[in-house]
Amino acid sequence: MKPNFSDFHSLLTLRFQPTKGQVCADLGESGELAIHDSNSDTYYGLDPVGARIWGLVADWKTVEEVRETLLEEYDVETSQLESDLSHLLEELVTKKLIEPVPPGVKPPKQSERVIESH
Predict the structure, then answer these.
(1) What is the DSSP string of 47-113?
(2) Is 76 among the domain residues?
(3) In a domain, 55, yes or no
(4) Is residue 22 part of a domain?
């Protein structure tokens, strides 16, 4: 299943999950997040908004739930948020840091949702 990132509304019911092999570290008060992809031995960084999106995705939220949460938390136009969110999700999928959750898959147990964090 390949999401159509150019049609944001087709993404609304989708869930994404971090792929196996991701190790995350909160960078403290800055709100930024470092991700080590142990599959490619590559490090990535997310700014505070990207880190918030990563956290919502890891908490098993649909794209619609992520959008609604961010609209409540940030002063941003809906169209801008949808464009930015779609772009970030596409980038994370392309880099194999997250993947779409197939329909019908049950959420993992809370303890399994936590990605190694340091």
Answers:
(1) -HHHHHHHHHHHTT-BHHHHHHHHHHHS---HHHHHHHHHHHHHHHHHTTSEEEPPTTPPPPPHHHH
(2) yes
(3) yes
(4) yes
Burial of 98 (0-12, 13-18, 19+ CB in 10 A): buried
pLDDT(118) > 50: no
What does the pLDDT look like over 43-72, one tens digit per residue? 999 999 999 999 999 999 999 999 999 999
Q: How many domains does the chain have?
A: 1
Distance CA 94, CA 76 (A): 25
The CATH number of the domain holding residue 24 is: 3.90.930.60
Quick: pLDDT tens for 74-97.
Answer: 999 999 999 999 999 999 999 999
Closest of 98, 47, 100, 89 to residue 67, by C-alpha: 89
Say if 1 falls within a structural domain.
Answer: no
Task: Provide the domain limits for residue 75.
Answer: 8-113
